[in-house]
Amino acid sequence: MNSAGRVVRRGMSLGALSVVLGALTTGTATAGTATAGQDSATAWAQVTPAPENIELGSWMSQLGGAIGDRPLNQIVMPGSHDAGSAGITKSSGMCDAGDTVDTARMWPELAASMSRAQSGSLVEQLEAGSRYLDLRLCKQGDRWYSYHGGPLGRQFFDALDGSQGIIPGEARELADWINRHPKEIVILRVKTTGPAATLKEDSRAAIAELGGMVGGDRLDNPAIADGSLNPTSTYNDFMAAGKHVVVVDDTNSTSYPWAWQQPDVQDYRGSYVGVSSKLEDILSAMLDPALEQKTYNAVLQRGDEVLGKAPKAGSEKKLFVQQTIIDPSNSIPTAAVTRLLDKLKLVSSWKADNFLLSMENELNKQVLAKLRESWNHTNVTDNMNIVMTDDVNQNRNGVAAGELQREIISKNLPQRITSHTFYNSTRKADGTWTGPSALSGAGEAFRYVGERQAVGAMRDGGIQVLGIGVDGNIWHNIRRADGSWQGWNALLAADNKNIGFAAKDIALTTMPNGDAQIVAVGKDGYAYHNIRFANGTWQGWNAMPGQDAGLLKATMAAAAHLPNGSTQVLVFGADGRMRLGTRAANGTWSSWQTVAGVNAPDFQGSALSIAALPNGDSQIAAIGIDGNIWHTIHRADGGWSGWGAPAGVSGGAMEASAVALAGMPDHSVQVAAVGPDGDVYHSVRLSDGNWTPFQRVSGIRGAGSFAGDQVGIAGLPDGSSQFILTTR
């Protein structure tokens, strides 16, 4: 047997990661069988094409395996801002009820240049991958037109002309495309304007006509298995119900069961960057030579803010429309100057006629770069839904046709995982698992990201969780028995006055009376103890006694409660040696006992964990400096069993970089570990002393493995267990 203090750890394999990357780059299907972290219903078997192989005209059906069980408001899709504006020309007329019609009438060419937000028709946008169309309709005379600000675009609905018969509108083409693509869910957000006296009645009629054309029975929103379709219904729910068209009524003038009301189902989360429309502000901005890039920077910065922020209560159940678009108000003078320069042949006529598109083409280029870089990891992509842009059909300025839309759609495929993000997974008493779900962040943060974690079971079926956040401080949370979360709260500092205890390591164990015992290793290297009482109050921090009447210095800690009300604390001391101490039920501390190693006077290593059993035994798992997991038992009578090493996944001892134990009511112990390949594994040491084989825990969005950094586990009274996993 090798000494735990003498063997150098071997390197990690990247095999599991290679499988996923290979599927992404070759466009092949990756199929997986059920593992320890998967029940058969959620085994990973989905097509994962490379982004360049996404078929824009049918991408939802192509990615059905990836998005099928995902709620509509968590499917990332391209959206079209002012979708009907491609038909705007300098001579296409004006909407009398438009909000900028007076200015537009004075400079129709300039107005058209600043109002045309799309270069393709509605059908061309759908073919380019857009599945959310922002439709602005104006009733002018007896006809409906698309419009933007003041200028009118194409006629929208069919209209009867005395001399020409029926003149088809663009809605006819839209309806035909939708009806030919039953596996593509299309969301139509409709906002109307027109004569004030009849606007409400006209709006209802327009919504009804559109619904009849694009949906019919496919639009109706009757009850399905457990209620009506809504933004949290999955793609498969829609397909099973035979529905694939959503109309979002932004007029708030209808009560049709199939027309979703805008305030209830859609949220922009402040993603639009507006600017002042005051003339003096516009003229001042014109003198700024860096105006255009500042405009782009503001949009991208707002995206950073919104995508990093947790949705407000209620909005997480709505469609999220991220508006990566420009408010062009400050650029109106520049657009006017551009028209003059065009007449002097100093700029291209295309830019003069399409000034807004020229700006959006540059913004889209920079958005594309963000999507490939800082917006290309799970803590951002999980917070995306509808990424709404101008010029969905862009094919210029360094962005090829469909390139931006494919990048947006690809966020539904496995992405670069954000490091150190906390995830929760459940192993049920029958051995089946739920997939991991990310924990919400502290404060306004979207996700909780941290370096270390600890978890303990509560008698009511909930768990308490500690995390050392990116600020270096300890935060506390509770997962209730019903699966809901309390939310993160920062702990007081060591002085028990100020907020923020900076720590290197943490440990948590819960007591039969509902109290939780907390151990933390401070940045000063000393070990501290605290209690969270069952009523939610805290004792406050006390430095832990050490050897020879001094204070305890440590690098890592673990804790477990015993049936007699005492708490055992396991540490690696400042000298690297493992020590075991006991806090009695009356609050007194025992002396620290050095734990013998594997063929060595003491045990030294890189990780440790301790779990108590109902008979008063405590079991210890630790990683020696040889990189292997070692296990021993400290019996209730004070004796030791000696160290043994559970078998690894490919023979020999189990190598690991992190390990956690949880004692179970049946006297078994569950073990979670980060294996040599960086994946999280699970095993059970049965009550008879035998070990089940280590098996992978399932990953994010149905992946066959979870690439982990730290692991925590708590065994519950009903035989289930809760895991807190952090990503690598």
Protein model, in words:
- The chain is α+β, with helices and mostly antiparallel strands and 728 residues long.
- It is built from 17 helices and 39 strands.
- A hairpin with a 5-residue loop joins β23 and β24.
- The longest helix has 18 residues, at 355-372.
- The chain is elongated.
- The two termini are 31 Å apart.
- 50% of the residues are buried.
Compile the SSE list and pairings.
Elements: H1 15-26, E1 29-31, E2 45-47, H2 59-62, H3 64-67, E3 77-80, H4 101-106, H5 108-115, H6 122-127, E4 132-140, E5 143-147, E6 152-155, E7 159-161, E8 165-167, H7 170-179, E9 186-193, H8 199-214, E10 223-224, E11 227-228, H9 235-241, E12 245-249, E13 259-261, H10 262-265, E14 266-267, H11 279-286, H12 291-307, E15 319-323, H13 332-343, H14 349-353, H15 355-372, H16 378-381, E16 386-389, H17 403-409, E17 422-427, E18 437-438, E19 450-457, E20 463-469, E21 474-479, E22 489-490, E23 503-510, E24 516-522, E25 527-532, E26 542-543, E27 554-561, E28 567-573, E29 578-583, E30 593-594, E31 605-612, E32 618-624, E33 629-634, E34 658-663, E35 669-674, E36 680-685, E37 695-696, E38 708-715, E39 721-727
Parallel strand pairs: 3-4, 3-16, 4-9, 9-12, 12-13, 14-15, 15-16
Antiparallel strand pairs: 1-2, 4-5, 5-6, 7-8, 10-11, 17-18, 17-39, 19-20, 20-21, 21-22, 23-24, 24-25, 25-26, 27-28, 28-29, 29-30, 31-32, 32-33, 34-35, 35-36, 36-37, 38-39
Helix pairs in contact: 15-17
